[in-house]
Amino acid sequence: MGTQLAMSTSFHPETDGRSERTNKTTIQALRAVVNHQQNDWVRHLGNIKFAINASVNASTKKLPFEVVLGFGGDRLIDLIAERKAVLVEVQDALAAAKVRQVEQVNRHRQPEPEIAVGDLVMVDTRDRRLRSKTGQRKSAKLFDRFEGPYKVLATNVATSNYTLQLNEGDRSHPPFHVSKL
């Protein structure tokens, strides 16, 4: 692009007049919009930056948007509007997909069994790594399909998890989902 880095000396703003002029314009604009406590200035920077970039530069007689992007601020406004329209379409599509997914899941959902604290339940062994009574590993395929009974210590209806009183030495995490009972 043909840009060159030109270092300036400290406390000599005349060296970098273009940046200093932009800073002055930014500060003047901020004075007009900040609140009395001056703690919301960051919130206004985006609008001020857009206004500066959409204004004709006195030296170049061009919009900074035109120089950098190849088109003016009016086209950028159109792009932002198009982008917002695409985002709305995407949000609508995601909402519709979520509805379809919920319908699909609910088609195969069975009502939860009524399990209360103190009830005894059996646990599905398919996903558990178990050891035989002698402590040696055996083939998991040959274990009984269900193990227990275990006493229910707590229930969490929102997550369908049940905390069980496991046998001593069982290193499983005590909460089990209802689908594993």
Automatic annotation (TrEMBL):
Gene3D superfamilies: Ribonuclease H-like superfamily/Ribonuclease H. This is BQ5605_C018g08767 protein. Residues 1-12 have a biased composition (Polar residues). The gene is BQ5605_C018g08767. It comes from Microbotryum silenes-dioicae. InterPro entries: Retrovirus_Pol_polyprotein (IPR050951), RNaseH-like_sf (IPR012337), RNaseH_sf (IPR036397), SH3_Tf2-1 (IPR056924). Residues 1-21 are annotated as: Disordered. Residues 118-181 form the Tf2-1-like SH3-like domain. GO terms for molecular function: nucleic acid binding.
